[in-house]
Amino acid sequence: MIKAIIISCLMMFSHYHNTVFHGGHVATFSYQIESEHILLEFQIESDVLNHFDLTDACPNYKSARAYCISQYINAHQKFTLDQENIEFELVSSKSNRNTFIVKMIAHVEVLEDQNMLIQNDCFISFDRRFENRIIIRRKNAVRSYLLDHQHQTIHF
Predict the structure, then answer these.
(1) Which of 77, 82, 103, 124 is an S-S bond match for 120, by CB 3.0 to 4.6 Å?
(2) Which run of H or E residues covers position 31?
(3) Quick one: pLDDT at residue 61?
(4) How far are the Cα atoms of 12, 41, 50 from residue 19, in angstroms, in the given order?
């Protein structure tokens, strides 16, 4: 009986420690660049997302979580094509096990030789140890970048 209580307490402490004190959490922003639009799929662990208080940024966060996350992403990431800011709109959201996923789209014509810039400080203002994985898919090429509080910009 005592052994079960000790194991239970250790598991609760481990879960609390990992969600509150663990640094190095990562959110993934996956961009699929097509000629007529850019798809964005955002993924984050639900436990990590629950660690952040977004009610100041969006008062109805509990009832409109996906909408609020999409607004937060648009406010804290900047995607530009030849210095023109691109806005993404919410398409859908879902939760799989412990992952929260938001899909967004920007209806924009993308040319081969355009300069692209991504700036992203999502969640870094809450936790300086937080990192954002940026994945760019365009034609047959896939590129991956890791942004943090010191490096928040990609230019390509």
Answers:
(1) 77
(2) strand 26-33
(3) 84
(4) 11, 23, 9
Residue 10 lies in a domain: no
16 falls within a domain: no
Quote the CA–CA distance of 121 and 85 in Å, as a whole number.
Answer: 16
The amino acid sitting at 17 is H
Q: Model-level pTM? A: 0.82
Contacts of 37 (CB under 8 A, 6+ apart): 105, 106, 107, 108, 110
Which tokens hold the place of 87? 């806005």
- What is the per-residue pLDDT across 29-65, written as a single tens digit (0 to 9) for each? 999 999 999 999 999 999 999 888 888 778 888 788 8
Please give the Cα distance from 152 to 21 (Å, whole number): 23
